[in-house]
Amino acid sequence: MKLTQAPFNKPLLVIKISDTALEIKLLELGFGVNTQFNLLRQAPFNGPYTLNNEKTQIILRSEDANRIEVSIPLSK
Amino acid sequence: MNVVLAGNPNCGKTSLFNRFTGMNQKVGNYPGITVSKREGSFKIDSEACLITDLPGIYSLYAGSEDEQISVNTLLDLQKIEKPPIILCIIDIQSPHKNLLLLSQLIELGMPVIGVFNYRKKTTTSEISDWIKKLKAKYLIPFLALNANSGEGVNALKEELKNNKNNEAVSGDPNSKVAEFATWIKQANESDTESNILKITKDLRARLEDVDNSFPSKTYSPELKPDSTQKTHSKTSYLDKLLMHHIWGYLIFGISLIVIFQAVFSWSAYPMEWIEEGFGLLSAFTQNYLPSNFYTNAISDGIIPGLAGIVVFVPQISFLFLFIALFEESGYMTRVVYLMDRLVKPFGLSGRSVVPLISGYACSIPAIMATRTIKNPREKLITMLVIPFMTCSARIPVYTTLIALMMSSEASVGVFNSQGLVLFALYLFGAFMSFFTALVAHKIMKRGGRSVLIMELPNYKIPSFNNVMLTIYEKSKSFVFQAGKIIILVSLALYLMSNIGFNDTFEKIEDNDTEFVNQFTPNELAQLKLENSVIGQLGKFIEPAIRPLGYDWKIGISLITSFAAREVFVGTMSTIYALEDAGDDTTSIIQKMQSDKNPDGTAKYSLAVVLSLLAFYALAMQCLSTIAVMYKETGGWKWPSIQFIVSTGSAYLLALLIYQLMS
Q: Could you say which of 2.40.240.10, 1.20.1050.10, 3.20.20.100, 2.30.30.90 is the CATH number of the domain covering A3-71?
């Protein structure tokens, strides 16, 4: 599913990033494909999203979130 | 010796830069663009060292324009024979991201010293453990310091001294280095499919390498439940409040009101002291220097010109106090989160909001505050539209003109009519700002899609040092850079109103008793102004402003208003031969109200007043703003465009209003 459809505060896994500039930026910040993270919150009126993993917390615009494919990882 | 600071955003680079340079720093622009360039100097023993702080980057693959600047600077430096020493900052809070950049810098063959920035709570064993591992892995000198407290900075200076002539640190310019440099250049120039693939592969490999060499355990929050964990939970607790759908906006709204109060009201006191101080100085020169033209030029031209510059310092200081607190504490990125969506359709960024609101107090600090906007395009649009916000200098003009239009008792329901008109003018200013931003957003060239991804740093207590240095640097750069232009033009305006070439002017100047005795001193001042160069200029432009309903008297005021808008009231007082009544505008309003056209109708009809209000709302009549725009954009292009567009639209709107209403 797309990140914009993903549930909040559940572990998520990055599957695919369909924009190269975005992919590079996310990789640099530690949110590349196969990393696990949390979707924390979204600002009103379809504003930016906040996500975090164990090291970093970032914000990104919803149109960029739309370009990120995620899945819910299988629990152990 | 030359030193360059490189590292991720928020890694402590600026704190370290401030530690090194103290007050010996200047912030300018990279040529032709609005990306900030911070340079400074410090001494090791007696040798002077130059230090440059590059905009923060995460890797050598640049995304935004400021990142591109960093990468290009590094690539240029790499080519010179004796490159400067690169200090690459590794922040203990996110070492992995920082190490990614470090590994690239080393591969670029630059003489790199790793600087490990730790915090107050980091233990000595943790630090030495990190340093040992880092040295073993990267084979370059590593040092630990605390950029906030300054601990370890002297050791770094020693290390710099040792490395001054140390060839071993700088990589040999072998083929591998050259190959990597060529690749970085290529990767930043064209984003072909194969390049992108190679970039992601490179980044992955480096991150994996870092992860393997420094397994998560050594830094994971679980290991130090009492330090990192605490900051994390403090941050997430604060975020719940400050990023909340309702509380977040409410708190931001309140902080805006506080900022506005500070810039608007609190700074009024020091501004008054400054004005009084310069007033005394002016009177002093008047009394103690021989009475002649030069003394007058000093006491009535240069000193008020200087006062006109220094008087902005309190506003600049207050605004930057808050902006530095926002930036330093980590709150500014939360503001971006809250506001980005609301202002994005206008080509503005979440960071534009604080500068825009500050524009209600004064455009000068507001334009300077746009430096915090990272994206150059969003920064430029914000700077261009700020002067439309209703700054405090417009208030005396507005209140005078509104009073000409309606009595102070008039009301609509419970609201005072004058207040309503003033409020409407405030709204009009904001509307014009956003409307112009929208137009600029539609017509200005876009530098690719702007990806807004921002790290949200943990909250921290702002460093007193950094906040004070920001305030000092901003005030200094305004006084010394914009100030030069302001004082030149105020002197020119002074000369123009005190030089005249016709008979009447000369008679007044020569103190021709027969002529002078026919008039009161106030009438003489009026005659002198009317016959001075500026008065003649007012008459000269009369044909151009006649269609707006203005006569030469208003023409003179329009010209003198270019020094600052509020000069309008003072000039009108002189023109109507009034004694300087200070803040009391009642008499000037009465005089203006009773002024009649030759046909007996009131000169300041509703049409004229509305036309003037529109003109003052839009026209770029602030010399200091033009000077600041010149300084901040590094050229005359944007100030000229801004001047032409705003003054042009002011003329057109004033024309439209007058022609439709009369």
A: 2.30.30.90
